[in-house]
Amino acid sequence: MVCSFCACRPKTDVDGMRKELMTLHNQVMNEDEEAGDQKTALDSLAKANTAAADSASFLSKKLAAISDNMMDWMHQFEPEQHTKSPDEQAMYLTAQKKQLLQLDSSYKALIKETSAYLKKQNIKTQTNMQGMKM
Question: What pLDDT score does 88 carry?
């Protein structure tokens, strides 16, 4: 029985990896939208309340920075990898997933921090109000 190296290796599910990456991307984009709502609330707070202005401005800048990082990721991402081998595509998608997971983790931590701050200031964001019944 003759078995070539390529024939015996399991096929890499590049399409599944790409789909998983796009699902993660969509999740992080939802977090970016929530962060944008929080940034708007913080910017308003910074303008209206001098006692909270420094903290609100600081958190707003952190939200802007993470959003910029997400935009940078989207601009450098190359979805068309068809000229590369399946293994090269898998390595690329794995690296991109790692970057998105880092962004996801950073978003979640910052959104949690900002939510607590806004709650302490008794401020609701558009995202928070969407879950409320009217």
Answer: 94
User: What is the number of structural domains in the chain?
Assistant: 1
Residue 93 domain-assigned? Answer: yes
CA distance 111 to 124: 13
Q: Tell me if 52 sits within 8 A of 121, measured CB to CB.
A: yes
Q: Which conformational region is residue 122 in: left (phi greater than 0), alpha (psi within -120 to 50 degrees), or beta?
A: left
Full domain range(s) for residue 47: 13-77+84-123
C-alpha Rg value of the chain to the nearest Å: 21
Both tokens assigned to 125: 């964001």
pLDDT tens sequence across 24-57? 999 999 999 999 999 999 999 999 867 889 999 9
Token pair for residue 96? 């991109």
Picking from 17, 13, 131, 29, the residue whose alpha carbon sits closest to that of residue 79 is 17
Q: Which two tokens stand for residue 25?
A: 């991307």
